[in-house]
What we know:
Elements: E1 3-4, H1 9-14, E2 26-33, E3 38-44, E4 47-52, E5 56-57, E6 60-66, E7 69-74, E8 77-82
Amino acid sequence: MTEHTETPAATLDAATDRDALPDAWVTLLGTLHGPDHSRALLRIGGTVHTVEIGTTLGGAMVAAIGEGTVILTRAGRRERLRLPAS
């Protein structure tokens, strides 16, 4: 059984509208958890990608995926991504 973090409706609507989400390099759109893996849906520069732990994104690596949260590491620093507020 998978555990799915619900993406707020406002985030889903904004994901396809240019300039609707925060002007960030990467924006978390949702997370999906299963018994053997976790994945996240990210918008990167206007394109939506599905990533998992270990995925590299322009010099940053996905270090962890939690409920509504993704941790990226880059040059020894951590960055926490959260779902945009609805």
